[in-house]
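Hey L., structure's done. Input below.
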Amino acid sequence: MAGPSNRKKSHSVYGLHAVRALLDKRPSAILSAKLLRGSSAGNLPQLARVLENLGVPIEHISRSDLDRLADGGTHQGIVVQTRGLEEIGIRELEELVVDRGKSFRGLLLDGVQDPRNLGACLRTADAAGMDAVIVPRNRAAKLTPVALKAATGAAETVRLARVPNIAAALHWLKQAGVWIVGAAEDAQRSVYDSRLEAPIIVAVGGEGRGLRRLTRESCDELVAIPMHGAVASLNVSVAVGVLLFELNRQIAVRRPRR
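Output:
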């Protein structure tokens, strides 16, 4: 399958934790910084000194200007402009799968459209050690400043693959030996009764809609998260956390002890 090469766009990153994570992992990507004029609260002065030592141009602006740059998000007095994050296409995803071999673990988000949910899922995928997060090119959340803030730096470490056709991508992954497990509320098998092991893709549907029909039909197995309360479903990022850490638990239990 052919696909576009790496795409880089300029991004705004805001919030103390998100900027600190960026400084830890990709300081060279920071092009400029806007700080709240006259503020000496919290960690802003320390971050300003770090940015100055890196030679990053700093401008002190009003709160209203920062609000505009952050599109109304909670910026905590700082917004930085970066060179942009690297998203990979289908060709790079295939190379990653081949390189990781039997250890490959990925997350598929089938139509997650809320940037906050995308960022939260990236954060969870990073915490669970996933190799990649796969999303469709169309009708899916972008890496907006809101998504980047929710990711709190995880977008700097997890490969985000945008593919033109989810069903075609899953077909290739299955041919490559990757097991596709989809989350579905009506699945007959609990995730705790399933045998999860790499190489694997865990597929989760978008907010309130679940997996699309073609994605669901492409799965090798469907599993459900048992619900015992009055709530019928979980937020997508919470469901992702349950599924990915259950995957990791099962892998750890079966790992030979030294």
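The chain has nine helices and 13 strands. Residues 236-254 form the longest helix (19 residues).

-- N.
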